[in-house]
Amino acid sequence: MTFDPRHKSRALLDGADRAAARSYFRAVGFTDEDLARPLIGIAHCWIELTPCNANHRKLAQKVAEGVRAAGGTPIEFNTISVTDGIAMGTEGMKASLISRDWIADSVELVTRGHLLDGLVTLSGCDKTIPAMVMAMARLDLPSVMLYGGSIMYGEYKGKRMTVQDIFEAIGARNAGKIDDKEPATPSSARRARARAPAVGSSPPTRWPPRSRCSVSRRWASTTCRRPILRRKRSPFRRAGWPWTSCARG
């Protein structure tokens, strides 16, 4: 038994009854020749928020060239991305793990909903990589995942710098070893991970002295400016239920 390259899209596009479906494809530029070939999805996580995924649209164009050369019809689509490197330390970090499932779900929905015959995925960070693999495993189609590549180092006054240098500078500043005038502080080293200097970027966060954010006072202190939410007593605890696991509900 031979494998049909159009094992999915044939039901979507072939026959007189599918003329309306074909008309939608024709409206965005696909030709009859394109629709006679296997439809190969190119899914990526392009977003302007982070260099992790900012190159995906350019890479997708190269992937599309390869798909056409191999006899397929590339169909590009993208999904969301939430970046830990930006969101960490804020309430936004709660969205990071959830984004993995949203990415996987959205890729699966587009691919299943349009009966694509194959899939190429592009990913670039610690949530988009597993998300794309999850979608591919669910779909059980001919597919491959491509990694978008590591972020190149930046340069500041002739010195190569990465985000690790910024983290170390933050720690050194909080420990009082350097101040805001030092060239390696977060205010000046924020360019290190970017492909180009940020436009209209906000000033560096002013953290309070360590003495005002001790571990023992962190949960209840209003002076600590770290974005940690207050925890409410569980209604089960107030009602006298014995489950101590609900104490921080």
Task: Provide a concise account of the structure shown.
The chain has ten helices and six strands. The chain has 249 residues and is of the alpha/beta class.
Roughly what fraction of the amino acids lie in strands? 5-15%
Order of the strands making up the biggest sheet? 2-1-3-4
Calculate the mean pLDDT score and round it.
Answer: 80
Q: Count the DSSP helices.
A: 10
- CATH homolog superfamily of the domain at 38-147: Glycogen Phosphorylase B
CATH topology of the domain at 38-147: Rossmann fold
Global Rg: 25 Å
Poorly predicted segments: 185-249
- The geometry reads as elongated
Description:
By secondary structure, this protein is an alpha/beta fold. Among the domains are: 110 residues, Glycogen Phosphorylase B (Rossmann fold), CATH 3.40.50; 46 residues, no CATH class. The strands form two sheets. A four-stranded parallel β-sheet has the order 2-1-3-4, sandwiched between helices. Strands 5-6 form a two-stranded antiparallel ribbon. Strand 3, helix 7 and strand 4 form a beta-alpha-beta unit. The relative contact order is 0.10. The C terminus is likely disordered.
